[in-house]
């Protein structure tokens, strides 16, 4: 049985904390499926982004770690660029019941600041990190812009839709930008111009 | 006038002698009980590890049993041993 009172206490604690740059939302009535967000740490390619984390609590929580996965696409050696799976020891064998959802989210924030390419989740990203660090930084920054900016939420889908109608991705992005993200206004602009 | 006492409730304050004020596993205060118990007190005792960290007995047993054969203290990660 999930320790409901402990999870409730944790949620109250996180809700009262406005400085750490982490938050947790309920998805429905169930306490076993939550959604967290972390702010990208400043001074990193993730700065300015807000990253959404899917959180599943096993019924034996806190005796087993929470299952966490990035929903927001992120370019990082320890996070799968395909499915958001995370390689972090405290979410696996180094978990302790004294840790909390908040400390786990803070650890993810720390992971964004200090990648561990020697223990990769995404081998392609890890290799780029080690061999072509400038390219890595540029890619990570681009992914933050494209997927993790508040204003870019849904932007990717909108661009895809416009591209499917036969416009180039570049034109779609520019039109959306100049029309403040309004899909219809952007299409009108593209058709006229 | 004669007062006849039909019943009385003894009221006393007590507290466990622990350094922190809440169990690091269930986060309930030490003067409350673990989530599996209804009443704090002798039925839901505190227990200390060799490292001096205290937990509800019921909470640390659940953790130790899920971690055998080499459980560690949830707070300091030293090998867990019950304080003699
Ligand atoms: Zn406890
Ligand atoms: Zn108990
Ligand atoms: Zn300890």
From TrEMBL, chain A:
Transmembrane parts of this sequence: none
Residues at the active site: 87
Keyword field: ATP-binding, Nucleotide-binding, Transferase, Ubl conjugation pathway
UniProt-listed Enzyme Commission number(s): 2.3.2.23
PROSITE patterns to which the protein is assigned, alphabetical: UBA, UBC_1, UBC_2
GO molecular function, one term: ATP binding
Domain named UBA: residues: 154-193
The keyword Nucleotide-binding belongs to this UniProt entry's keyword annotation: yes
Domain UBC core stretches: 2-149
Family to which this protein belongs: Belongs to the ubiquitin-conjugating enzyme family.
Protein name: E2 ubiquitin-conjugating enzyme
Origin species: Ceratopteris richardii (Triangle waterfern)
Organismal lineage: Eukaryota, Viridiplantae, Streptophyta, Embryophyta, Tracheophyta
From TrEMBL, chain B:
CDD domains (alphabetical): RING-H2_APC11
Transmembrane segments: none
One cellular component term from this protein's GO annotations in UniProt: anaphase-promoting complex
Source organism per UniProt: Ceratopteris richardii (Triangle waterfern)
Subcellular location: Nucleus
Protein's UniProt keywords contain Nucleus: yes
Cross-referenced InterPro entries: RING-box_E3_Ubiquitin_Ligase, RING-H2_APC11, Znf_RING, Znf_RING/FYVE/PHD
Keywords linked to the UniProt accession: Cell cycle, Cell division, Metal-binding, Mitosis, Nucleus, Ubl conjugation pathway, Zinc, Zinc-finger
GO molecular function: cullin family protein binding; ubiquitin protein ligase activity; zinc ion binding
Predominant cellular place of this UniProt entry's protein: nucleus
Pfam families given in the database record: zf-ANAPC11 (PF12861)
Pathway annotation from the record: Protein modification; protein ubiquitination
One GO process term, biological-process aspect: anaphase-promoting complex-dependent catabolic process
RING-type domain sequence ranges: 34-77
Record family assignment: Belongs to the RING-box family.
Name listed for the protein in its UniProt record: Anaphase-promoting complex subunit 11
Top-rank taxon: Eukaryota
PROSITE patterns linked: ZF_RING_2
């Amino acid at each position: 049985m999930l320790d409901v009172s402990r999870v409730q206490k944790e949620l109250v604690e996180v809700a009262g904390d406005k400085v750490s740059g982490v938050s947790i939302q309920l998805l429905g009535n169930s306490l076993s499926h939550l959604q967290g967000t972390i702010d990208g740490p400043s001074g990193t390619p993730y700065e300015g982004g807000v990253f959404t984390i899917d959180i599943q609590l096993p019924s034996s929580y806190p005796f087993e770690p929470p299952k966490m996965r990035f929903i927001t696409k992120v370019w990082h050696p320890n996070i799968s660029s395909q499915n958001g799976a995370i390689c972090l020891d405290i979410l696996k064998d180094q978990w302790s019941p004294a840790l909390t959802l908040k400390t786990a989210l803070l650890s993810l924030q720390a992971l964004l600041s200090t990648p561990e390419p020697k223990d990769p989740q995404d081998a392609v990203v890890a290799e780029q990190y080690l061999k072509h660090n400038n390219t890595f930084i540029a890619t990570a920054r681009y992914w933050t812009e494209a997927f993790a900016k508040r204003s870019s939420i849904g932007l990717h889908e909108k661009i895809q839709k416009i591209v499917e109608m036969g416009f180039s991705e570049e034109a779609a992005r520019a039109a959306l930008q100049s029309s403040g993200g309004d899909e219809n206004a952007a299409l009108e602009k593209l058709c006229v111009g | 006038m004669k007062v006849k006492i039909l019943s009385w409730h003894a009221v006393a304050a007590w507290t466990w002698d622990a350094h922190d004020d809440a169990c690091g596993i269930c986060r309930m205060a030490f003067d409350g009980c673990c989530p599996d118990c209804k009443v704090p007190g002798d039925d839901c005792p505190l227990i200390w590890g060799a490292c001096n960290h205290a937990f509800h007995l019921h909470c640390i047993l659940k953790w130790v049993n899920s971690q055998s054969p080499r459980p560690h203290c949830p707070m300091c990660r030293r090998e867990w041993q019950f304080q003699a």
